[in-house]
Structures
1.
Amino acid sequence: MPAPLTLHAEVVVVGSGPGGATVARELARNGRRVLLLERGIDHRPASYYGTYLGALIYADRRSLLFTQEGLNIIRPLMVGGATSMYCGCAAPPPPWLADRYGINLSEEVSETVEELEIAPLPPELRGEASTRIAQAAQARGYNFQPQLKFMRPAQGRSFAERCGARCMLGCRCGAKWNAAEWVDEAVAVGADLRTRARVDRVLIEDGRAVGVAGRLAGQPFTAQAETVVLAAGGIGTPRILQASGLREAGLGMAMDTTVMVYGFVRERGIGNEPPMTWSWENADVGYMLSTLIDPWLLYPIITALKGPRYPLTWPRWNHILGVMIKLRDQVSGGVFPDGRISKPLTADDRERLHLAEAVCREILVEAGARPDTIFMTPLRGTHPSATVRLGAMLDSNLQTAVRGLYVCDASAFPEALGRPTVLTIIGLGKRLARHLQQGTGR
Ligand SMILES: Cc1cc2nc3c(=O)[nH]c(=O)nc-3n(C[C@H](O)[C@H](O)[C@H](O)COP(=O)(O)OP(=O)(O)OC[C@H]3O[C@@H](n4cnc5c(N)ncnc54)[C@H](O)[C@@H]3O)c2cc1C
């Protein structure tokens, strides 16, 4: 048996989504020897990237990952993590993160907003029907606003003419920021990126992290480092911690559980318009609404989960108005060592979801949808998070009880965010990199 490959670095970062990419880039720019380990590969050069086929290839279980309760989780596994398939929406961290947990990310977030030119899409790209929904909502007293976006029209090839900011399965023109770009930048300044590197556990000696072990292209390997940052996402990170002996990881989870409420109109609907161009947050009740419907090919699959008659509406896909509900759900269920994932809604969650659905119906009717055509899709989740919570398993510098072992991704959220996550994760990544850079993280 050949000896397992051993790699060496100052800092090992596991996972290349927004959390891992940010930490790796910041530290590499400051001259630290960074090893970035990603279990997926870089699908961006492939012809299928950004297509339906691509979504099947790079999402966990071909996009058919379900919780015990039947909630569908979309979990892209590739360089860039879930930003390879996200809608490009940006939201600042919720105020309670600073008020309740003392995590003030305003400096890191301002820096990111400026660097990535985060702004709403220009009015002509917000979509006619989407704008009609927003106006209907405003007329009913719900203050929909243009959604901030990680979109840089100037950088996209033929942005307005060809893509129109409509992509949902991966941006092919380069206008939508993707964490993979920061992976490229980290590599350009010396970070060592290894793809097909699946980390199984953290190596711990005398209460401190000394590296990680796993499989690289199917072969066993270890990587030694004095600092380990886990950024494998809300499902990946607790699994690694459980295998490393931190048993309470994964007990409880948030998801920002999502549903769409659809209604049909005679005119053109929002199907071919950019996703989520308008939104509104009801912070008191704990939900966010945005203009969105499922992509054409996914629509019959998703609606089939509701019942056999719903996919029959597929031919009228072009006449749908849709509002997405993101529920700021309570922490429940979890990611368990036997592989199960559970995310039940609590009674309080159900009550608030019911209130949000009623508001969506009101908006859709105001926007011209026939009341008898309105229905809500089954539950799904795109923000698995809060599985290794700040304030419980992590201190304010994101360090676990194991010295030198940090977590920097959506699993660190202390509660459900109830809004787009990526800007907050980038903020956490920059803050952690500064902490490690000051030498206090050693
Ligand atoms: C369809 C969709 C639309 C979305 N839209 C938006 C949006 O518009 N705005 C927004 O802010 N958020 C959006 N989100 C959510 C957002 O993309 C995620 O919350 C965010 O990317 C999470 O970042 P992360 O760093 O925690 O983990 P991830 O992005 O999940 O990255 C984790 C990485 O770790 C890798 N990994 C996992 N396990 C291992 C292991 N054992 N070893 C090595 N590597 C591993 C994975 O392959 C992955 O690349 C969306 C998500 C989806 C799925």
2.
Amino acid sequence: MRVAVLSGKGGTGKTFVSVNLASVAQNATYLDCDVEEPNGQLFLKPEKVSTLPVTVPLPAFDGEKCTGCRKCVDFCHFNALVFVRNQPMVFAEVCHSCGGCTLVCPEGAVKESLREVGCVKEGVAGDVRVVTGILNLGEVSAVPVIKAVLQKSKNERGLTVIDCPPGSGCSVMESVSQADYCVLVAEPTAFGFHNLKMVHKLVRLLQKPCGIVINKANGEYPLLNQFCAETNTPLLLRIPYDAKVAERTAAGQVAVLQEAAMAEIFRNLLTQIRKEAVQ
Ligand code: SF4
Ligand code: SF4
């Protein structure tokens, strides 16, 4: 089963939930798709790490064959091409590697080279397989690296936990595309609630079953409970704020490996997710 863990915004405890879920399951795979800030590895500390580069095609222009017709420049909807001295020129960071300019060129003057945009690291932490996507600084699209990470989820027998990027944009849509179930992590605040509603709308649009985990849940936040009831979304777990757990997390420790009570909480969460996912 593939479980995607999302949050409408950063800092809600999405990686905390993902890492602990993976650690409490047996023989799990943890996929870090939060490729701009892949923090899961800081907690899991994988060993025997191998690295694979992630590349995308980038057009290159043959000045001998190019007649300067501008068809490629006019075609590019991403404005990645400009015309300089009667020749097209590409802005690599803006190019989405759609291949359109190669197709429309009547002279066969466009060839593609490969450009590195990030990498995927794979290692093991105990019985957890840890796959981490890392996007190079300055890149505009995280999607190619996320796709490369998700390819590593194939042929899994146990649980796969997908730690998604924050927000509700394209990179999140890509990350949840293969999920069987989505866990939405929220804070009981007005801001947290606002972002939860956005990400909830997204997973419903993608027709993914989902449940909510409230983190730092000290006291009641009636609007959240009301939202769960109105949208028929199960409230899977409330995790109260605990200074000791926060300190350990800040020190890079995995809570379920430190505290039996926390391990029990996450085992119960996993049982509930499994039940909900088959309904
Ligand atoms: S590959 Fe696509 S996005 Fe990139 S320059 Fe060509 S048409 Fe534009
Ligand atoms: S479409 Fe081909 S021939 Fe025309 S400007 Fe672009 S590269 Fe040159």
3.
Amino acid sequence: MQREEILKKGESTASKVSIAVFFFALAKVIIALISGSVALLSDGVHSLTDTIESFFVWLGFKISQKKPTEKFPYGFYKAENIVAFFVSFLIILAGFEIARESFQRIFSFQPLNLAYGAIAIALSDAVFLFFLGRYETKIGKEINSQSITAQGKELTSHIFSSSLVVGGIISTYLGIPKIEGIVGLLLSLLVFKIGLESIKDSILSLMDISPSKEIEKKVKNLLLSIPNIQGFSGLKLRRSGPFIFGEVNIKIEKSLAVQKAHEIADEIEKKTKETIPQLDSFIIHIEPSEIKEPTIIIPVNENNQLNSLVSKQFGRAYLFAIVKIKENKLSSLEFIENPYKEKSVRAGLSVSKFLAEKKPDILITKEIGPISFHTLRDNLVQIYKAEDGTIKEVINKFLENKLKKIEQPTRIKE
Ligand SMILES: [Zn+2]
């Protein structure tokens, strides 16, 4: 489901629920006032807070649909959590009211008018809100909306409170004192519980709580299933209104071309969004895995083993020394001929492509032209500046970190 669709669905669900709950709340309060049932009145007041709540939920979805602005580049999704936070206090306030009324009723018995009407509205309310709550919970889960799901669950729980209301009304009708007041008090506890949970949830969301262990696990499994990833770290997910934002660092083989690395990142983004539709954005940082055993290329003009002198030129060097390093020591040395040393046109490009196939990590050279420089850098080869001397001297300086990295071509022409 698209973001806009999710928000639209949340909005329309909240508005439908608001209207339905408001209708029942009004009916309950009116009949409660006529009949004098404190249990029904408590329930009616409770339903009025539910109406206000779903109205605010609706408002939250309305605000969330506002496009991100320059000032709020991440959008307004958290509006929903802020609204839920304030509504929680209203719910707790209603809880106090109900508790107060019910407490008084324990000590003063009052017979009911219109007892059948009170029972009928309480019963129909119980059944209707139960199914409405179930429907709302289902949609809430579908669109991963915290407020819609919470409200749906709460409406479903009305079946218990409404049964208590029915029991209370019947006991008063039969002339049994205190029961209705006790029922009212019990119902107020339920209202407190709803309010406190709602405060907790909205604060956690505002504090960027991770969505859930399941969602985190899904993302982890997905990352592990993608080829060419050598590992990942720093996976962070956070909830923002009905959406999830995330980021991760992935490690890829150093020699992988930039284009390929980009494809991998795209693949991760596509797959995670398919698995977790609520994911709004997933930022992927790519880092090359650390080179533990680098392969180094050095242009030379003679094969004099470690005593070969470093060539003044790169593209037209006679030979290339390929040095492998293990545990910070030279572990192997071989020489390859430069097949393009006599090439008159675009020798730099041919040589660089030829060398890139050897998958070197590092090139140490005195000079490098622009085409060679960019070709090698695109293949993630790091380039260092060589000083006069033999391979042995240059490698030692490299291992002692005394060579400078070349960040731009040293010549204008190849
Ligand atoms: Zn309720």
